[in-house]
Amino acid sequence: MYTLKEDAIQEYKEEQNTKLSQNFQTQLVALIEEKEEATLAMAVSLAQNDLFKEVLKTKDRSLLDLESISKNYSLSTVYKNVWIQLIDAKGTSFMRSWSDARGDSLYDLREDIRKMLQDKKVQSSLSVGRYTLSFKSMVPLFNGEEFLGIVEIITHFNSIEKKLKKLGYDAVVLADKSYEEKLTHTVTKHFIDGYYVTNFQLNHELLDLLETKGVEYFLDTEKLYFPHNATHVVLKHSFYDTSHQPLGHVIVLAPHTIELENIDAIEMMYILFAFIAFLFLSALLYFSLDKDILSRSVQSGTYDKRLIVIMLVVFTIFMSITYLLLMMEKKQKTAQFLTQHTQKKEYDYQHVYKKYKDLATLFFETKINAAEVKSILLLSDKDLVREKLYKHLQDSYRSALKYNIKQLHFHTPSNQSFLRFHRPEKYGDDLSSFRQTVAYVNQFKEPIDGFEEGENLQWVSFCFSTF
């Protein structure tokens, strides 16, 4: 009975830890996909800025301050370490936001650059370069039919690490050891067993664990989780390139989801089973001592009624307690399911909401809050302003539609519609009564975001102010 109890407890722990590992991997994959999409959106947005083309045409680096643009991303989005690179038509680095190094050929070093120069199409990847493991998105730049070069956005895992931290995971992100010799200009300078540690900030408990046991202790096995202590387990996830070769690994220290009350319930259940088994065997032994006496007692009705009553009472108590325990377990399982379901929905909502907030902020900072747009808004002829605004931003608006940004809408300081890109012919109507976000921004001159119900539709609205 003791062995059965221990097996049941162990099975419960394995079930919970397996679910935890699967949830972690699902959440991590979603975060990676989100980061890839956001990186591509930034690259596409920057590529529509004619200043980048002008710099490559004139070879005048003084026209562009990539470091300032990168810092602006840090201030206006959750992405704090955005790198920007301009690459010329020969695959040579023309400018970098994170380094003064330039003029070095990337053609021989990076397969993705060679493919881009050949295909001249938008490209995204998760790859390891000389500096780190990172997300890269490249967009070709043209002057008419002439290919000028590439604008590249590079982002890192640090925002993913922070989001994992909010979900309860302390993460270490590693570039695979097969890239050790390639990583010649690393940012953190930190390697464990040949695996490059990309983290800017580290959990020292997890780092000490990796250095003590070795990274491959966790990677060279199909196990989904590794018990660490009474409260935490170690989880892992690896990702691969298009050739199914390992690129990197994420190892996390996570609080387990094992409920001690459930273990207590399992133990109590087996104690009751042992008790009732003891009673049953005792009664069986008692009645089997003398079958002749038992037979005569049953026929004459002189059997021990008190013993029978005691057994019935014990059986009733046992069944009642068993029922209560099963109901408690059902209640706990139901509450656990509802909690996990609610948390997942909340996470999905926050995930999607944050994605669109960052895209909207990025679009505003790179396209709307720009000198060209402000100079158009200062014109006195409002019909001419609408015409020029629409012509200047219509390509950017069409690109935004690909990322499900459905509307671009300019308003007047008096809360009237000035220009709807989805319906440019309709303007001049007062929005005060049903667009509280518009009224708020005009009153307080600061951005606002939130879920809002318009005149006919419901949407998530992001409003900004520019002067």
Biggest sheet strand line-up: 7-8-6-11-10-9
Beta-strand percent range? 15-25%
Number of helices: 13
Q: Helix/strand/pairing class, anyone?
A: alpha+beta
Could you say which overall geometry the principal axes of the C-alpha atoms support? flat
Report the sheet with the most strands, covering strand number, pairing sense and barrel closure: 6 strands, antiparallel
What would you note in describing this structure?
The protein starts with a helix and ends with a strand. With 467 residues, the protein is an alpha+beta fold. Strands 7-8-6-11-10-9 form a six-stranded antiparallel sheet, with helices on both faces. It has a five-stranded antiparallel sheet with strand order 2-1-5-4-3, with helices on both faces. Strands 12-13 form a two-stranded antiparallel ribbon. The model has no long low-confidence stretch (mean pLDDT 80). It contains 13 helices and 15 strands. The longest helix has 64 residues. It is flat.
Set down the secondary structure blueprint.
Elements: H1 2-47, H2 50-58, H3 66-76, E1 83-88, E2 93-96, H4 111-119, E3 123-128, E4 133-143, E5 146-155, H5 158-166, E6 170-175, E7 191-192, E8 195-197, H6 204-213, H7 215-219, E9 225-227, E10 232-240, E11 246-255, H8 260-288, H9 291-300, H10 305-368, H11 371-377, H12 382-401, E12 409-411, E13 417-420, H13 436-444, E14 448-453, E15 458-463
Antiparallel strand pairs: 1-2, 1-5, 3-4, 4-5, 6-8, 6-11, 7-8, 9-10, 10-11, 12-13, 14-15
Structure characteristics:
single chain; 467 residues; alpha+beta; 6-stranded antiparallel β-sheet; 5-stranded antiparallel β-sheet; 19% strand
